[in-house]
Structures are given as C-alpha cells and as structure tokens.
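Next comes one such specimen:
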Amino acid sequence: MRPLSPLRLVGASVASAALTLRRYVTPSARSQFQKEGSAAAALARDAARWEGGATSAEMFVKRLEQVAPESLDLTVPTHNKAAMQCADTLRKLQPSLAHLCDLRAKLVERKDDVPFFVHLTVILAVSKQHTASLLTPFHCTMVFAVYGEQNRLKKKSEHPNGEDFLFTKIEQLEWLFDCNSRGTWSILVVDDGCPNDSGGLCAKQLVERQYGNTNVNVVYLKDGIEQKSPACVGLESTNDSRKGGSIQYGLYEAAKRNNLPDGTVHCVCYTDADLSTHLGQCGLLMNILVRQGLDCAVGTRRMHDSIMVKGGSRNVRGKLHAYLWKQMMPEIGYVVDTQTAFKGFKAETVLDITKSLVERKFAFDIELMLKTHLRRENSLGQCGIAWIDSEAESQSGDTENYVALLRAIATIYRAYLPADTWRDEFADFVSGLSVDSFEKLLDNCPKGIATRDAADFATYKGVSSADLAAACR
C-alpha cells in the first residue's frame, strides 16, 4: 500500500486522537475530566505522535480549546502538570520560536474567547523555546518572601487554601530548565519576620520530602538586619518591612554569590509565594536579560499580549495606581505594570540598586525600577505574561496597605526626581489620601482612567489631581 503523505498522516493522526478523546468529552465524563486537566493531558500524549509542522500545532491548539479546563485552579496540581505537558507537545510539533510567537499572537486577538489554560500552554511553549535557544551560559535565582504562608504552603488536601507552592515552583523550574544544559537555577526563600515561622516551615518541608539538592535555600531578614547587610541599612527590625525589605535582601544575597562559572549571566528574579505566576514563564525574563542584554525584565499583566484573570475593584484599583504613579514618574512611564511580582535583574545591577533604599514595603518594585533606569536609561524591558489572581490569604489586598503604597510612591518621587508642578500636585494628592477617601475614589473612579488601557497612561493626562480630589468627596 502506498504510504500516506506527511499532510495526510497528520490528518490520520488527528482523527485517531479525536477517537481517543471521545471518552473524555462525552457529556457524562467531560466536566470531571476537564476540571482535572485529564482531557488536556490525554490530548498532549496523543498529539506527541503526530507529524510535526504548523498545521499540526494549530490543530493541537484548536482541539486543546475544546478539552481544556474552563479555568485554571491554583490548587489542582494536575492543571500545572497538564499545562507543561501540553507545552512540550506543542514545542515538539512546532519548534520554530517565530511560529510559536505567531500562534500566541493569534490567540491574543481573541483572548477572551480562549480558555486561560490554553493561553498559558502556548506562553509556556514560547518561554521554554526562548530558554532552549540561549547560547550564553546562564543561571536564574528565583527569590520570594514568605509571611503568613503556613496555609498556602500545604497541599489542598491539608488546607482549603493549600497550594503546595514551594514544590510546585521547584517542579516548574525543573521543567523549564530541562531543555538547555547551559542553564541552571536556584530558589532563595526569605522569611519576612513571620510569627508562624514560614521560613522554617519551608525548610522543614524540604527535609520531610527528602529534597536532596542544595539549590533551594531559606534565609531570614532578621539575620540580614543583625549582620548589617548593605541591603538592610535603615531597617531596625523585621517590623519595618512588608515584603519589600525581604525581597531586597534576598536579591542582594543572591547577587553577591560568586560561585558561578566565568561568563555566566546571572539573572536574579523575584515572584510572590503564591502560584499566580507560573515560573515556567521565566524564559520570557531571561530572553530580555540574556539575549537582549537589558538590566531589568518586567513581567506584566497589562500589555496587549498579557493574559490576566482578575476582576472587581482590584482591577480598577490597578488602573488607578498606574495612572497616579505615571504622573509622578514619567521617566519610566513606558513600564506598563509595576506591581506584578515577576521581575528579573542582572546580578551586577542588583548590587548597585539595593543600597541606600527608601522604600521597604509594598512600593519597593517601583524604587528598584526607577534606580535601574537612573543607572542606565532605557534599560528596562517588558514582557506580557499569563497571570491569575490568588486573592485568598493575600497579604497585600486591603485598602489601608494600598493607600500606604501610594503615599510611598510620592516619597520615592521626592527622593529621586526633580520637582515639577504637575508631579507635585499628584504627590500632594496621594500623600493626603485616607482609607475613606480612597474607597470613595474607587467607587467614583473617573471614566478617563477606569475605561482606558493602562498602557495609555504614559502620555494621557486627561484627569488632573483636582478631578481626583473631587471624586473623593
């Protein structure tokens, strides 16, 4: 019998996969298998045998849309595994980075109609292909702070809000870095003075689960303060920090380590303890730092190709925050999103910018980025990421903290930048905000802010500080 042509073989393989999948997508079974991610994983296994090429990749994504979980559940470990498995299959079908980026762009054009799981799968494939293509030796240290994380550290079976975040992050980085022998990774957990000893619980978990590698370590902010670390100057106790002091100390501790081979680009990154950002996306940061040679890589939820699951007042609040800080700091106004905890710096940059700091709490991101810009102009790069809110047990969500964040930004502006009438008016406005006035502002947020894309705020000045003051009354 004459052999099938490659194109016909693809069609035959797709048909076979469709038959295999029917047991997962019948009305009686579809819901449960979708919820667990089993249908997506089954598709990935079958599609891995297809003939490669653009047609197969597009067909795979099309079928993935049909069987993917309708939403990504942070507490379902099979979702994480299925997304990575699907990304690997997609890379096998279409190893061209350019074509993967094109596929991602096509999904973005109809982003609201595509399940988050599918967007994440394609972004992970792009990220891993970036990682695989790096020719320079590189190392990524991922830093995150822990405070009150005794519940999210657990598995879902152990607590309703359990995310098993430490070992999930390890699994995500192991997956990302298995494609390039030039790359290595490590994790540095920083205890922010947690009364429940979140850092100790992380260390205990590593022992209990017999994690034998030495690339995951725990440090304590209190030790940095006692040892007078350059990154901790001005801190008298851990009570002076709300995540910011710990991240700054962790970045510095990671950057000063000099046990990497000569010529290695050391990318020092940070994230949140929760699972809002899949660390398989670190390849997007390393593309900016290693390949493009910039000093800072900013992962953002608010670029055109970003995929974000977040609603309610937290979304309006994010836009309001973006508008306010951009009026005071237009020098880095091209940065679309400052508060997403997914950023990376070159180690040598970290050693410069973590000294003589002003802000130790929730506005620390913007100070680090501003100092990076002042050190070398236009040295910040951005990448859209997939991000899903983990509001349960969040340490930064209440209004009082948010008002304090805005006031801190005004302090940073006054510490680093020249005075200007327009900027001063906004700095005065946010410095005078109270919890009550800010909540009124959220309820009456001017349409020019609430309905506009945050990316426009670098140049948009349609709402004055006087307009905002009126909205607070």
User: Anything to note?
Assistant: Residues 58 and 103 are 8 Å apart (CA to CA). The two ends are 82 Å apart (CA to CA). Residues 1-30 have pLDDT under 50 and may be disordered. Strands lie at 138-146, 183-191, 216-220, 265-271, 296-300, 307-309, 342-346, 380-384, 386-388.
